[in-house]
Amino acid sequence: RLLLTATACMFVFICLCVIGLGDVADAFSRFFGFAPGYGIIENNQSSIENNQNIEYVIDGQDLAVEDKAIIMNLRTATATKDSIGIYIEVKRKNISEAEMIKEKKQQVSQGTQNKTSIVLTAGDKIYNEYSGITADGGDHELAYVSFSVNPSDINTHLIYTIHYADYKATLKFKLKKIDSFNTLEEIGSTDTHNNISVTAVTTKKDDRLQVHLYPVNKSDYKITSFVKEFDTGYDGKDFQLKTNKGLKTYLERGSWIGAAFNIDFSISKDEKPLFLNIPFIIATTNESSTVKIKIPAFGQKITLNKEVRFKDATMIITDVEKIRDKVSSNELLKMNLAYKNFEKNKIMFNARFGRVKGNWSFESKSDGDHVSSINFSLEKGDGDSLNLIINNPEYYLLGDYKLEIKGN
Fold this sequence. Notes:
The chain is mainly β. The protein is 8% helix and 53% strand. The chain has three helices and 31 strands. Strands 3, 4, 5, 6, 9, 10 and 13 form a seven-stranded antiparallel β-sheet that branches. Strands 18, 19, 20, 23, 24, 28 and 31 form a seven-stranded antiparallel β-sheet that branches.
């Protein structure tokens, strides 16, 4: 499940390009296209699929098929003038852990572990997968794949069929023209902070409230999550659902499909969902800085107070100490960290550490809601100093998003 979540999280970095930068006041008053399960697309903005506009979306939502072997769900589908992209989830039934291990070993020995056969038929035309990402979590598999399709085979009349691997079950769907709206509020409850609007669309299904968050990002940041990174969120706060019976936490950390963040809450039949409370957004930038750090001898701690400055905050390497890993006995450089934030609503809490020329092997230690120290792997020949690159600073973008739940 962790592998699936991690792979799904990669989609945000691929797909957030759907929304471009621009003037905020102008951006939030334009026409918007809405692809359920995928994202909000502004008029005259291109999608990442071949740099073309999304013209069609799936007709329906969470379509599924089931037989004795699998349950296959089509989470979303989008189409440009000459390509169709689909996101599917497959749950395998009646397969033991021993069978999965044997199967995985066989795939590794044959070199086929990353080769999932997925075929799309459009009427009587057959299209083979041309690019995609798949994740195998044992009895769960996820796939986001795109097909190059003849423009004459992309319309609202044809029936499309997905054939997954060697399973007999097939899933059929149709396309419809993408819906357009004058305002984000027409799509769902919307709130805006830090030049980022978030629109919520919810569905109550059985004992779950499925929440789909659609951000429109006009900031200089890349959104990575809406939930806490560590055991505690910023200042002890985290994403919550308010019902007529009180506050509830989410079931799992959530995942991205396209530019939509999906997260579920449990809810009983007699509960009425009222609001979604989102106290912060976790985001990052592409900024980078290089520093030279002195490596002390064992048993010696050096006070540095070395400042690593970014646009909205400064990370301070307060002191360094050479230590030994308790398990492997490898040498590590421990760097204690502090932060200086320039704006009260943008709180830096982490960054990536790597060699200017070399690997990125490090372990971070958290203290509450921020990373307080880094243990960086040392190598033979490092001598008495280390040249580091520190990039992708992470921030809590504070803003009390309060999104009313409509129609559930």
